[in-house]
Prior knowledge:
alpha/beta; Metallo-beta-lactamase, Chain A; 7 helices; 13 strands
Amino acid sequence: xxxxxxxxxxxxxxxxxxxxxxxxxxxxxxxxxxxxxxxxxxxxxxxxxxxxxxxxxxxxxxxxxxxxxxxxxxxxxxxxxxxxxxxxxxxxxxxxxxxxxxxxxxxxxxxxxxxxxxxxxxxxxxxxxxxxxxxxxxxxxxxxxxxxxxxxxxxxxxxxxxxxxxxxxxxxxxxxxxxxxxxxxxxxxxxxxxxxxxxxxxxxxxxxxxxxxxxxxxxxxxxxxxxxxxxxxxxx
Length: 236
Ligand SMILES: [Zn+2]
Ligand SMILES: [Zn+2]
């Protein structure tokens, strides 16, 4: 079943939605959602939450790992008419709010300009960002949720470290492909790739036993060592 929640840790779940996975933290009858899928994902998310015993009014916060449409596109529909605090990295807040044009996702130059209108449609309606996050910030919630800035895939990509859950949510800052091998994220150019690898080095220094991705199943088998090896491979 597409909407059956997958448990990552105590009170931490993933839901498969259109084009991505979203992560849900549930504690003391409140829920924090990480990412919102493509436009049209809201009903799937709300159904998944209900399976976890979470009602729409229990959803008090949404944090975005980055602005890409498969993460932020479903947000507008999800939070419309609801009292939900939205958090995103400060460098991407204006994009999510529709005040700054979305950077070209696929390419810069003519190809990027051609694809921009399509991407903009995928983006869904703009949403006000209540909390502009920086590296090291804590998102107020029952369990500790620590913001880790992981630029590279996008300039404001963030991970969320859950120290009490032994879990880090990385969004698209890392890939874990079919051959079950960690890979660097998709990046726009060489400079962004270098930035991404610096971010992975930072990630390898944190404490966790599970990595939760946005497009791949979780990695539980010595994930820090796997990130460390990836950084060494790319650097060598
Ligand atoms: Zn992305
Ligand atoms: Zn994505």
